[in-house]
Amino acid sequence: MKKTLINPDFISLLHSFTNYIKVRNYKTGKRNIYQSAVSDFLIWLEVSGIRKIKQVTSVESVAYFEYLIARPKIRGEGTLAEKTIKFQLFALGLFQQNLLENKEIETTFFIPSYSQFSQKERNILTVEQVKTVYQHCQNHQERALLSVGYGCGLRRSEIEALDINDIQLFSGMLIVRSGKNSKRREVPMSNPVMEHLRQYLTQERYNAPLGNGALFVNAKGQRISGDQLNTLLKKMIEQTGQYELIKSDITLHCLRHSIAFHLAENNASIEFIRRFLGHAEINTTYLYAIKNKKRKLITTL
């Protein structure tokens, strides 16, 4: 990417930001780190065809974050360190505040917080491990549970609340009627997921008591609780006979994290992952992008 700004409007905004930083006594160092971070962003906007700062929306800020994730270091090998990306985002937050105060923009564009990245890491299954669990399933119910937990990335509470009518095989959509914060969403099902659910519905579920129409029920037709579903998953993991997998303490939420990482590994956009998982904010999804980048770096060493 080019190294100098050309757009006179952007140059003026950068000068204004420089004064903003000086007045507030931010320590910029010899390299003018705050100005450099904002200059990088403005140059990226130019290259992307953005000519006015008011054109910037959350779409551009998400794309810029993805650019930072993949951006090579200027010196040395590899991509930008987490702390560098963290600083870039912090500087953009200051820049946006400066824009608001000067009435250069009327509405904010999305800038992620880094608070999400300090969360406890969960165990992640590899694609091969997921295949192994599928191969050792003993009935259609087990395959169906793996399909909605991993294949559809549902939360434990969402799986527990699923009804038969939520599986819409004719449209290829799974309906989450009340996800986190009571939000409804439609999750696309892959062909293998639809086939596993079709087999479960036609060969096992419809032979069980209808009960209240829950998707996963016990022998009495009662809805299976989230804890019981996790117990079933633990049994499924133990059926593989793989010690490393068994000791990993895999839960339904680990399946959800696993599909998120695998989507990121296959270059799915942050926005797609956000919609697929039902995140209210893009911010939550950045966690997967950052940690996925770390995993890729480790595997290439």
Automatic annotation (TrEMBL):
Main location: cytoplasm
GO MF term (any one): DNA binding
GO cellular component term of the entry, any: cytoplasm
Short name of any one Pfam family annotated for the protein: Phage_integrase
InterPro entries for this protein: DNA_brk_join_enz, Integrase-like_cat_sf, Integrase_catalytic, Tyrosine_recombinase_XerCD
Gene3D superfamilies linked to this entry: Intergrase catalytic core (1.10.443.10)
Record-level GO BP terms: DNA integration; DNA recombination
Domain of life: Bacteria
Residues in Tyr recombinase domain copies: 120-301
Signal peptide: none
Localization: Cytoplasm
UniProt KW keywords: DNA integration, DNA recombination
Protein name: Integrase
Organism of this sequence: Flavobacterium stagni
